[in-house]
C-alpha cells in the first residue's frame, strides 16, 4: 500500500491536474457587468476575461453586434490558445515514442477520458480548433447576440446542457417530454468557449473534425455542422448568412497577446 501511495504522489508531483487556464497567458479580469465595461479590440487581442455576463439587450442592432464581438473574441482566442498548448504537449509526448514517462502516460489517459477516445491520433484530431468566424456565428445564434437567459445568468453562450447534479447549473424554463432540463453555469466566458470546443470534439461531428484537419476554409467546414441543431440545413444556412452579412471572416486573422 505504501508503494502505491508513493507512486500516486510521484505522478501528481510530476504531472499536476490539468489546469483550466494556461500559465503562458497573462489575462486581465473584467469584473464589471455594464456595457461600458466592454473593452474594444484590435488585431492583437488583449486577453480580457469577463467574469460576469453583460446584457446587450438594450443596445441597437449594430451596437449590440459590435459589443458582442468585442466580448467574445478574447474568450475565443484564450480557449483556442489553451487547447493549442495542450495539443502541443500531446505531440511532444508522441515524439518521445518509448521514452515517455509515467506522468506522460497519466496525462494522456486523462485527456483521452475527457475527449472520449482511445488512440493518440484520435485525441490529436479531437483537440483541434477551427476558424474564429464559425465560433462567433454559432455563439451569436445560440445566445441571441448576447441576450439569452442562459448567457445572462450562467455565462453559457451555447446553451450547453448539464446532466450532473453536483455541478453549477441553472434550470431551463421549459421541460423536455416532462423532464426538467438544466444548463451548465460557467465562471467566465472562456470556460463556456472551452466547453463548446469539447462538445464538437466528443459529439457526432466526426466529418467536421475530419474536414478541419484538411482545410481552414470556412464555407467548406460549415456544411458539416448540420447535426449541431435540429434545424439541420436551415441552421447551416443561418451560420453562413451571419458570417457573410457581418463579415466575420475578418476576425480569423486576429491573434492573442500571449505575454501581455
3D structure, described in words:
The protein has 260 residues and is mainly α. It has one domain (2-256): Lysozyme (Orthogonal Bundle). It contains ten helices and seven strands. Helix 2 (61-95) packs across helix 5 (132-143) and helix 2 (61-95) packs across helix 7. The longest helix has 35 residues, at 61-95. The radius of gyration is 19 Å and the shape is globular. It starts with a helix and ends with a strand.
User: Distance N terminus to C terminus?
Assistant: 46 Å
The gross shape turns out to be globular
Total tally of structural domains: 1
Uncertain runs are 1-21
Structural class: mainly alpha
The CATH level-2 architecture is identified as: Orthogonal Bundle
- Level of helix content? 40-55%
List the secondary-structure elements in sequence, H or E.
HEEEHHHHHEEEHHHHE
Question: Mean pLDDT, nearest integer?
Answer: 89
| CATH top level class name | Mainly Alpha
Largest sheet: 3 strands, antiparallel
Could you name the CATH topology? Lysozyme
Number of beta-strand segments = 7
With helices defined by DSSP (H or I, 4 residues minimum), what is the helix count? Answer: 10
- Strand order within the widest beta sheet: 4-6-5
β-strand percent reads 5-15%
The Cα radius of gyration reads 19 Å
